[in-house]
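Worked example 3. Consider a protein that binds S-adenosylmethionine.
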Amino acid sequence: MAYLSDPKETIAVLNRYHFAFKKRFGQNFLIDSHVLEKILRAAEITPEDTVLEIGPGIGTLTQALCEHAKQVVAVEIDRTLIPILREDTCKDYDNLTLINDDVLAVDLHELSRRFGNCRFQVVANLPYYITTPILMGLLERRVPLKNLTVMVQKEVAQRMQAGPGTKEYGALSLAVQYYARPYLAANVPPNCFMPRPGVGSAVIRLTPHPEPPVAVSDEAFLFALIRAAFGQRRKTLVNSLANAPELSLTKERTAAALAEMGLSETVRGEALSLEQFARLTELLS
Ligand code: SAM
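Given these inputs, the predicted complex is written out as structure tokens:
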């Protein structure tokens, strides 16, 4: 069987179906077999796994996933790709279920129930325009997950695994690290895709925590604090929180809580760890 990670094969399929790339769907297809292997290695798929692939494209990753997993459920928004997958590139795999839909509109809890109450191995070369809603949707809604191994924009991967005091550290770092342990598996240059994206990419693996690493009585308040703290990055934390009407916090109250934590009232949000945001939540909520 000819694999699509060979660029000649990809071009042949695209020509056979007169396929035109749609920028609005973030279509940059993988054309590098080494990168494909790195994704598979990072995902550590076993023959017992049910894989959820988001955006199979013409099936480059899908073929390999079907060969390693028990079953693969692939959700693709672009209906013009469905006949290519069904009648051509993935026609030989009877462990593949194709769903033509917007992944953000699919009830993934229901999908897990339909596939034997599985914990999904999520593997995807994600459409970059909706990376954060897809990943945060999976984590926040607590979709049953074993691991997520995804290609994202390099800068987004760096933000996900950044720690306090770095310029990449922000609300995304804290949100991701509250739910999962990030591991950067590979950096991927633009020439590994067709068409080439304007940015570098990276493969990141997120392993969900069985329990969040910090315990808070009000999760929504923790995330509201984090959003407010990084909404106005240049300001002190005391000022950023006072400027967020939904929190109803005076400068004095935040300053007193920071003092109790042994922190200066001029500290900025970017200096606080997840543990410190959790402690602040308990003092202020
Ligand atoms: N997996 C293929 C590969 O690696 O070559 C394609 C990856 S491409 C970066 C992203 C894919 O996601 C495209 O096939 C695109 O049509 C699909 N896509 C974009 N938005 C989507 C959405 N909301 N739901 C499901 N699929 C989507």
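Take a moment to read the result before moving on. The first helix runs from residue 7 to 16. The two ends are 59 Å apart (CA to CA).
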